[in-house]
TrEMBL record:
Protein name: Heme chaperone HemW
UniProt record, GO biological process: porphyrin-containing compound biosynthetic process
Family, similarity comment: Belongs to the anaerobic coproporphyrinogen-III oxidase family. HemW subfamily.
Function: Probably acts as a heme chaperone, transferring heme to an unknown acceptor. Binds one molecule of heme per monomer, possibly covalently. Binds 1 [4Fe-4S] cluster. The cluster is coordinated with 3 cysteines and an exchangeable S-adenosyl-L-methionine.
Keyword Cytoplasm: yes
NCBIfam families noted in UniProt: hemN_rel
Keyword terms of this UniProt record: 4Fe-4S, Chaperone, Cytoplasm, Heme, Iron, Iron-sulfur, Metal-binding, S-adenosyl-L-methionine
Domain Radical SAM core: 24-270
One Pfam family named in its UniProt record: Radical_SAM
InterPro entries reported for this sequence: Coproporphyrinogen-III_oxidase, Elp3/MiaA/NifB-like_rSAM, HemW-like, rSAM, rSAM_horseshoe, rSAM_sf
A GO cellular component entry from the record: cytoplasm
Amino acid sequence: MPSALPDGEPVPADGALPASALAGATDRPLGFYLHVPYCATRCGYCDFNTYTATELRGSGGVLASRDNYAGTLVDEVRLARKVLGDDPREVRTVFVGGGTPTLLAADDLVRMLGAVREEFGLAADAEVTTEANPESVDPAYLAALRAGGFNRISFGMQSARQHVLRVLDRTHTPGRPERCVAEARAAGFEHVNLDLIYGTPGESDDDWRASLDAAIGAGPDHVSAYALIVEEGTQLARRIRRGEVPMTDDDVHADRYLIAEEMLSAAGFDWYEVSNWATSEAGRCLHNELYWRGADWWGAGPGAHSHVGGVRWWNVKHPGAYAAALAEGRSPGAGRELLSEEDRRVERILLELRLSEGVPLSLLRAEGLAAAGRALADGLLAEGPYDEGRAALTLRGRLLADAVVRDLVD
């Protein structure tokens, strides 16, 4: 969740939504994202809305404390119940992200999940995920999460090579994420993800292959692999500007992506979104699919974004300001926007084209249809889905996904 917030119209003090946003809501899936904004240290590439203890000291006092955080977030879940009304609507997915959620006690994460369960109810087959730093969990912690209702966990692995982790300022040791997978399985987690990053300055093709080998060998049923993006204002951007490490390269990113596709597919993983692979349909991250398909979700926590029925809003960034708003009985929303039908059409194209199923050609305007025909001729869209009325990316199209999307939207 990037730290920069957009502009928008004010959010009412009670968080009330327009009637149009709630119309037909019970027929739409609902997910919850619970943001934990704390990290032990700040990674050099990170631009997310997260805070270390040093960064919070003197800038929020007791309100911004990790010790109080679970109770504060529970207050927002209760606000969500008031805003969304009393119509029966079970929650399909819960995703706890950060930051490093596992810096909180396992009981705190279970308490946050419990609030969603008590206020809304969870679907019988609800997917409940938390992100985790490999060094911040142990078998007892994982067992407590599983007993509390979590059934999916995502470990930040990034790389199996120490020198790559060092450039990223990651604090875990190589081999620890793989052991975490085994510990999570032993605790009873049905689904386990490993997050990888490719294209780090100083990383070689062999380094990347070693990371993929280690991840595959650990036995997760889901792997996410993201190209490193150097965000302005980060420590890594400053190091590159000073010439201490080389700039990342798009051609290298493309080569690394092809390596990932080759190795993961050979190991039984199928891509279902440009940066995500799973060993089965059940292994897919359903929560992220809610995002990509424009469903409803409530994002609780500092800087968290939400979307319900075509209304998108976002919370104040700082944990102290967030806690203060809820303590005063106010919505922590900082701004919101009402999406037009055209906005929603464009966003469907932007997001759904990244999925293996693709996007309906019926969503495209005349210019977009013409661009889709050219993309098909250029081998960027697959012929079978196209004949069935869908624009779906080929492997080559995935490498150029951003350009293809721009053409289809324009």
